[in-house]
Specification:
Order of helices and strands: EEEHEEEHEEEHHEHEHEHEHEHEHEHEH
Strand content: 25-35%
Largest sheet: 7 strands, mixed
Radius of gyration: 20 Å
Shape: globular
Helix content: 10-25%
Distance between the termini: 26 Å
Number of helices: 12
Number of strands: 17
């Protein structure tokens, strides 16, 4: 099956936009999705968010891309069909699929609802599925996924602005919970005010934290405080501001994917504080040991979250009215959007209006 063309591998005709080579340029693409299995949920894709990792994968910047590739792992839509053994979803439900569509379901991680740390996690696009075919993401008209990897989107959340929560949202929610930065009254720093950072501020505030945005862009101060509800803003290039804030933070969520120094961030932490990296710079960061030893501080990392926690995050977002700030675009704008994303020219997440703009060629 893996040797056939993507249009003929499965019985269900599908249409999306794919890149064929490391230029990363996306264009219309006919492919196919599997028939709805016993435990599968099929849904019409209505919106799909554009994540920074889509850009890395399109251009093979991590060296793992297999072409053709259809990106997209912030996918929301409406259920059209369910398998005979599906218990959690019915036709018409509002649903989402995030970064993964499969795992072994039997290892320690899977047994603890941490499928994201399973060594055999199957990513939503650009990965080999159980049947040997490649997975294709949400820049497409339909999606089929095992119900275990599908989440309910509550009616109170607008689908377009909820889509980015499936990647950006869970990426920041999970470390806030795991590293116990979710207690009221704690002082939490958020480094970088992009797709991840702006939702991190909202989640941390909803958990009761005092939140300081740490940024190299002083022009983001008004936005951070007035629109996103941060308590304070720290211009991280200003030595006086840094000095004044030394040793004041219980934890920091670092969302930056570019090279940046960790030493000033470690200095901002109280003793026993936690610096959690969720961005993925391509080159190693320098990590000095003395500042860690002298304050028993830790530097950790975190990657998305398990399915149970992803549903919890979506329900928490609905309860607290948390969504991403988005710019909705038609599919034929997607290459321009990628170019803008590469220079951080978006506030704060592009979301493709799949339902109204993705049209199969006749």
């Amino acid at each position: 099956m893996g040797g056939q063309s993507p249009a003929n591998q499965h019985p269900r005709k599908a249409f999306g936009w794919a890149a064929r080579d490391p230029s990363g340029v996306l264009s219309p693409f006919n492919f196919s999705r599997r028939a709805t299995g016993d435990k599968d949920v099929a849904f019409k894709v209505l919106y799909c968010g554009i994540c920074h990792s889509d850009l890395h994968m399109l251009k093979n910047e991590w060296g793992v891309t297999v072409y053709p590739i259809i990106p997209g792992h912030e996918i929301v839509g409406e259920v059209t069909d369910v398998g005979s053994k599906v218990t959690k979803f019915k036709v018409g439900d509002r649903v989402g699929v995030g970064c993964m569509v499969g795992s072994c379901r039997s290892c320690d991680s899977c047994n603890n609802s941490l499928e994201n740390y399973c060594p055999k996690t199957i990513l939503t696009y650009g990965a080999k599925y159980f049947d040997g075919t490649m997975t294709f993401g949400g820049y497409s008209d339909i999606m089929v996924a095992d119900e275990h990897f599908v989440v309910h989107i509550p009616d109170s959340l607008p689908l377009d602005a909820a889509a980015p929560l499936l990647c950006a949202g869970i990426t920041v929610y999970s470390p806030l919970r795991y590293f116990e930065l979710d207690k009221p009254g704690l002082h939490v720093g958020v480094v970088g005010l992009g797709g991840l950072g702006h939702v991190a501020v909202r989640f941390a505030k909803a958990m009761g934290a005092r939140v300081t945005v740490i940024s190299t862009s002083p022009n983001k101060k008004k936005e951070a405080i007035e629109n996103l509800g941060a308590d304070e803003f720290l211009f991280s290039i200003d030595q006086n501001e840094l000095q004044a804030a030394m040793g004041t933070m219980d934890g920091i969520i670092d969302t930056v994917s570019a090279q940046h120094p960790l030493l000033p961030l470690i200095g901002l932490l109280k003793s026993h504080g936690k610096l959690v990296l969720v961005g993925a710079p391509t080159k190693p960061l320098e990590l000095p040991s003395f500042p860690l030893l002298l304050g028993r501080k830790i530097v950790g990392g975190s990657s998305i979250g398990g399915m149970k926690e992803t549903q919890e995050m979506i329900d928490f977002a609905a309860k607290h009215n948390i969504v991403a700030d988005i710019e909705v675009i038609p599919i034929d704008y997607v290459n321009t959007a990628m170019e803008r994303l590469s220079r951080a020219d978006v506030k704060y997440r592009f979301v493709i209006d799949i339902a109204n703009t993705l049209k199969a060629s006749p």
